[in-house]
Specification:
By secondary structure, this protein is of the alpha/beta class. The protein has helices spanning about 30-35, 40-60, 75-85, 120-130, 155-170, 185-195, 215-220, 240-250, 275-280, 285-300, 305-320, 335-340, and strands at about 5, 10, 20-25, 25, 65, 90-95, 110, 115, 140-145, 175-180, 200-205, 225-230, 260, 265-270.
Length: about 350
């Protein structure tokens, strides 16, 4: 029986069910917290996250992938505290998140640098996947890196190549934060391919931030999975355009190369909560259930296509399995979510 690692231990792959493959629990840099957020109450925020993730499970979701890696304040023990009090499967990632520079600890150590050694990030990422993160025993389930509008800086390229090398060594899948307006997904595909990564195991996050179908089809035709994963961030692209883009790609036969998610969080030190509510009030863990699935269903999208994007594709990407369910009622309790009406999910995230 094939298993996959969660923060509370391995589970059978069959238990993955419906997956949100691009979410966060805590985005909280510890250096920033210790110095600038003295009022931050860990117990209160853990309790808030427990409440949210319980409601995510109640809404019909089975698994959440937390893509908060180093550089975003990853603390997997804190995430485990939350997951231990929910029935939601919570998976975590390894990698490093930056738009440009590496941390100073890596400026002078690596290929061709003052301390000229193989990139230490590769071994670190492999250890996180195969032995566990730090002393926690929690094993990552996927790799994560980023390439934003700043492009392929030296630091971004080093991380991406180390991620690619770790993927080849372990067989782990890769998720890349991209900026579709600069078409950085094409750069990510090139670099990862040069490292020998199978592009069918690469998810290009935030592809849903554009309606450029030519660009999206180009990425998908190379085998990668399109992360339509910022539903609710209407300030970057209106909800209606996001829905129309997914629908157009489904009509063109790309259901097997898309996933749906929200990139939501329980807490982030990047944004003021009040301002977020003003600018992006629908950016929650519940946007798919409240708005996206009803909108796609109203356009005639089938339950089978929704199952493909929420069950089959995430499982195939995470595990390398090629068998898809292909039906709306396969897997644990799938039918109710696909018949849900807008607003019928648990109360929206505060």
């Amino acid at each position: 029986m094939q298993t996959i690692n969660t923060v509370t231990g391995p589970i059978p792959v069959a238990d993955l069910g419906r997956v949100l493959p691009h979410e966060h629990v805590f985005i909280l840099n510890e250096d920033y917290r210790l110095n600038f957020l003295p009022e931050w109450d860990e117990d209160a925020h853990v309790a808030h996250a427990v409440d949210l993730l319980r409601r995510v499970k109640a809404s019909g979701i089975d698994t959440l992938l937390d893509v908060s890696v180093a550089g975003m304040g990853r603390n997997v023990e804190r995430v485990r505290r939350v997951a231990e009090h929910t029935d939601l499967n919570v998976l975590v990632t390894t990698g490093y998140f930056t738009y440009h520079d590496l941390p100073l600890q890596l400026h002078y150590t690596g290929p061709g640098l003052g301390f000229d050694v193989p990139d230490p990030m590769t071994a670190t990422f492999v250890r996180d996947l195969t032995e566990g993160i730090g002393h926690t025993g929690i094993k990552a389930a996927a790799l994560m890196c980023a390439i934003e509008a700043e492009g392929l800086s030296t630091g971004v390229e080093r991380i991406m190549r180390a991620v690619g090398q770790a993927a080849v060594l372990t067989g782990a899948p890769v998720i890349v934060h991209t900026n579709p307006h600069t078409e950085s997904g094409l750069v990510a595909q090139r670099v990862l391919s040069e490292e020998g990564v199978d592009l069918t195991r690469v998810m290009l996050a935030h592809s849903g931030d554009t309606g450029n179908l030519d660009y999206l089809r180009h990425l998908a035709d190379a085998g990668s999975i399109l992360g339509m994963d910022r539903f609710g961030v209407d300030v970057l692209l209106p909800h209606e355009v996001r829905i129309a883009t997914v629908h157009a790609l489904l009509e063109a036969g790309y259901a097997d190369r898309m996933v749906l998610s929200q990139s939501a969080y329980a807490f982030s030190d990047w944004f003021d909560d009040a301002k977020k509510q003003e600018v992006a009030p629908d950016w929650t863990y519940f946007n798919l259930v409240d708005r996206v699935i009803p909108a796609l269903t109203a356009l005639g999208v089938s339950a089978a296509d929704l199952t493909t994007m929420m069950v089959d594709v995430p499982r195939r990407w995470l595990t390398g399995e090629t068998t898809d369910s292909g039906t709306a009622d396969s897997g644990p309790g799938l039918a109710p979510l696909f018949s849900v009406k807008s607003g019928s999910s648990p109360e929206k995230q505060a």
